[in-house]
């Protein structure tokens, strides 16, 4: 039935394949349609009723489950799984710019919808039925309509000890997987006039701050941070409410929920940091070792890995 | 009727004066009772039915209105006015320690009640019917049952311009009466991910911080601060809610309500500072130029005035 | 000076004692007045300017501090302390029944006020400046204005271990005492899109409105209104929250709490109207039969009574 | 493969077309199935794997993207776009009445689900993944599960000036695109007793009200209004909270957010009005120039356009 | 086109059927794919483009609408309807255990997504676009992303009379369909000190309680109960907030919303009970006639029907 | 003693009267002082220790209770009652304008304070201890510090018809001083479906309940309980919020704050119990061993002590 016959590719008798660029060991299911110009790697499985648009590029060992629709421009990296009936929308009109991209190892569930032009980061997870309207960072798990980040894959969550009611010194905080980062217990003084937490250079702060900033009024579903610094140290204290912080040095990962003005978190340079799950009343104080310098920021995870001499994932 | 006759003192024929230590020009009203040992200065007016306990010391030009009761140990400085039927309680029992004190120029209203052993600061104002259960700082105005601080006398309140909805740079903030202190507009960045305010050394911060502290969960009627530093600079930002700050260099005074993360307040050394009227959700960030040193604090207003070479008031 | 001389009692030369029933070891201060018939136990101290009414009964070892007034009928048991300028009120009128009583060991602070007929339980504590309007149970500590229970004396506090609406037509509203005013049930329509109340001329509104106004953000303890109109009709609807309205035609009076958008209140001319007890969220809509005319307002109650041909009260 | 061959229609060799009623220039994709009786206009594109039920009527220049399912009874007007894998449900059972309808120019996203029997208005937009359970008005943009209105297409939003803190007269409000409608600044009086806004005939109100109604307790996702009046004028004031109002005279459109009791909006007859995005605390007062008359309402947008002598869109 | 031809089954010429286990009277639509090993009962309708995995078992009279995907292991009982483009996910990886199951008479809407391994109870309803991540109990209606219970099918909701403000006795409550259960009006006493509701044995309580429990802090979308007792009586009172209770004796069903401390509900043994739609502040008091005995609980609905001698549904 | 003798006026021998303008039938008490120029009407009673300033005008049948101070300028109309130790302040300084005024029939309580220049309306009531800082309207009843309107005298109120955190076993609780009472730890089970606490006879409950009641909506300053039972046992659990309970067997006392559904309190007969400090959301469940019997209650503490064979305190 298909006009093209490829010796190392299994093409179902009821499939319609119009592109010759399909890698060895791949398989095209019944009623599937691969349009002219599509480029598919080795050991890829295209399910029944699936549709692969021309100009779509698919890596190796990718699974495209039945009924899924992949519209160009779209690049799917290696080892990705795309669930049944999931749709990658194409551009809204003829002149629309952009290109959708799915990073290596990402998993997309069933019946998901991905708006055109988005980037799904490596090892990210899009859950069943999610309607994705914004870029998904590496490792992030997203869910819902519209989709928002509900967690990070491959990231152990560290449970901090509950601060006792009495205002005495907190026990030594736990050690992090990311070895250069450190949790620092801060003194808290409570009297009839309210509560006060503080930190001093040397004792608590490993650097002299040249800059401070305060983050607040963050919608609960928003993510802040998602970058690393080349040289700048940061010290985070969540004065009110709570916020979850993900740390990643390219090898080890941690997630810790800051929910006490008695706990500081020192993030040294060359550690990828993410802040999310802000409570409605969260106020996050950040002290920084340097004044603002745009070129101190590494904003792409792959650049961060490269800067650390690690392979992209 | 009185067993003692003092030539330069007007003693009403129906008064009962048992102390000879009364200054010239003073006047004792009908049915008033001055007990043995009381010491009263010049030009003092003791109203009808008033009672002055032995060992009470009263300065000059003091008015004690009818029916007021002054129980020892109590020291009343010059130029104080004490309202009708107001009571300074004596000690609760025979062994109770302490001494009540009223600073120069203070004004106490009618029917007020002052618990034993309290200190009413110079130029403070206790309003009618107030039930005073704690020390009243200099210049403070207190009211209610129990009394709390509702304002500061002789202190102009500075109205800050309303921050516009758009997140652009604030207009130059107003100049303060206390010439060494300064309001500093801070940049604020608002995007879909929430709000962020920041400050940097040089541009906004006139010193390099060695310490930070965060004040929160302050009951609305409480006062914090009420001290000056000998050498330490402070920089205040009210990240959430609002707080009123009173500044005093011994000559000029200011009150300003901080209610925006876009406004910093630099308090240099040798300026008396008071923080009060915290809103329930207030979070105040303070950056300090020095690590903690107990002897950098001047905690008594009279010591502060002395250190500035100014006469006590 | 006192007509009575008791050998075992110290009576100050300026005291006025008219009762012979005073126990041995007691002491009466200067300008104090003990009325005929008062019965005072042994070792009692009556301070200067104090007043003890006839028929008052005082036990033993009681201290009555200067300026205190004890009005009959009153029974004070043993070992009570009554603070300076504190008043036990007598009955409000000649026929008022009841008797005030202070239980043994109770302590009353300075400048306190105790309404007639109350019972202060044994060992109770009335704090300085408290205005006591209800019985005080045994051991209770009361404070404030009005006084309320803040704790129990002699009672160890045990610390527990820490662990963690058919929107059909309303029935006919009641008839008011102020005969010319009228409550009007308004239709309300509720559907999935929210609630809607309405009124039309003829059916609900007895006049054609020429003006509307909306009242909101009223502090709960504030009063609005307090006037009558000569010619203008008003129609009030409390759309949100609640407000109490007082009506007065000079003879009859009503108070009604409006708390539903389904209830309108027609206030005709020549009815004195008061609005008070606004809930924090109250929104009051007023429709008026005339445009604003300053001389249509009668703002003084006496003028209102005169205008109605009624004597001032 | 298809039993029917139509000269001016491109039918893919793997498509299954069982209806002859397909207009010239149309195109049927691979694995698509058009059932007997379906009627399809000119220049229509039916994507791969799509299913068009018998008795479905499709206008001209319509795009039906791959995998979409259109179940009868359903009428799709001209220039509509229906996204991939989107489903128009059929009736729940054999006897179910009704017909689904999509107005001209509407855009339906990917993976959307539309319950049977709904009407999607002309130029409306259903976003990706939306689950539509109620009619969508003309121009409305809907999103979510269940879907609700998030905006209106082709409607410029007018930013009102921020009301200053001081209670002086507001600057002249901006002019609307809908020329017969008018924004009216209202005086506001604030004193210690709260706030009061008012309006009078002549000065602020261009008509004499015969009826008032108050709208409140509106769920934030609900829409009210969506009609025009033939003769009745309306005057809207949002006393508390905020509400967005869309105006449309058939040629020009406006959206304005009313959020101040100091701003009235006069909507004259023959202007289509929509109210939505009520804040939880919103209270909207409406004064109307006429008593209620059911036949004064135009409740269908196409009737409104016809009444204005304009072509349907 | 299909390799298998079955005399009593209608297989569309464009369908692909690889399993011989299909019951008489069934129908397989165009472009549908039934994999080897699938077992399909009689009178089943498999729509166009549908996909039935090998090892899937389907009962009789089941409708699988076009584009639906049924992945093994999965058992679909008789009389089920599965909507268009709906996906039953397969296991996430090769070693994943479990089996999805859909009970008899269940209805699944369009574009729904069902995570692998879930059980959908008999006669349950999954609404359009629902993303089902947890088991769905018998009769339950679920909706949303993620899906939660919004009601129960075949269950009449009983409207209770509104409790009047005055604290007099409530009118006799309505009679329930489940004849052995009973609503009981409780007296309520309100005074200045708050509100009090009570019940007594004989008058209100039909048994002597041996155990009580209190349910609170229930997330609004959670369901509690879902069981029957063999011998234990229960008496429910919702002291604060509201909760909906579903009763089922295997023949008749009731749903009643308890929202008043004045209404008790007696649930006798051998009645299936469900509690859901707790308001955030709901506090439910339950009195039980017996102490806790694990074997008194019937936790599976089919066991309950069997114990009552009724056929499974 | 007084320099002026007026034939129709009773002047106490210890009074000091310096004004001749006193009406017939009036009476001046001991130690009272009427200054030159005061004008007093007929049948006026000036109490002991009272002070009437010169230029004060008092009407007829006025009562000025002992210790009251009336400072000029002040006009007191007929039939006014002014309570003991109440003070009308004079002007704050020599140039202050204004005049205080008390309308006919007004009643001022004891120890009240009235700021200078205010008008107290006819028949108004100023309650004991009130600190009046604003005009008081006719008929208004004011109370508090500062005083506010709490009602209107002579005004019937019309009642409108109703319109529409590890959940393991707790450690053994502490032993109480009141030996017969007992705290009982209750198990609590928390899962994703919310929280559940329970108690059983024998294990937790020392009696079989015949009655239950639930207390809620208690104003925070109110006290419930304050009684003992002759025969009835009670078991208290605070399901939501918190409440403090005081226990007293006539010899020993305890106070315990119940704030967890995991803690029950058994109060046996013949223990005096008090409940106070209810949090706004408190829900207290009480199980009782007997049905209601009015004569089982001992409502007076002295009766309770007598019933226990103990002397009154």
TrEMBL record, chains A, B, C, D, E, F:
Residues 182-307 form the Sugar 3,4-ketoisomerase QdtA cupin domain. The keyword Ribosomal protein does not apply. The keyword Repeat applies. Coiled coil: none annotated. It comes from the Bacteria. Keywords: Acyltransferase, Repeat, Transferase. Belongs to the transferase hexapeptide repeat family. This is WxcM-like domain-containing protein. It comes from Roseateles subflavus.
